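#structure-requests
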Amino acid sequence: MILPIYTYGQPVLRQKGKDITKDYPNLKELINNMFETMYNADGVGLAAPQIGLDIRLIVIDLEPLAEENPIFSGFKKVLINPEIIEYSGETVKMDEGCLSLPGINEAVERKEKIRIKYFDENFVEHDEEYDAFFARCIQHEYDHIEGTLFIDRISAIRKQLIKSKLNNLIKGKTRCHYKIKPMQK
């Protein structure tokens, strides 16, 4: 089932997500719905707050990028209760966008490498290291479950320059090709 994506201004996007257990109601269905919602919006990552749930659940699938870069082939992850336990390497700046901020792209600085612990969809625990775009994608989605948006990582000047776009999102004056749930007036 395709769910609406919550856009900038929705309070849930600013809440820190809560851990869940393997008994979370309809977890498999929720994960499937998140993937379907993400694919429908042409995204490669989606966190539970983006569909209105304040829980620590992330789905990522970089397969759509594999045609241009085969290294992404087969990279499909479900991260439950993730915790980034180490950031390392250089700080790298790269353009990012977000399904909760349609039409906004900004250069964001992030660490090149991370080490993360999480549970997969079968509640098997993992402790893994990622670098480059894999690390960036995970960090972006991880920010969502921490109540942070990528625009929080840009300069005050850049944020001022996109203020009208942010205001339009809050007012529900943004159109996109996927189902959204703007802030209620």
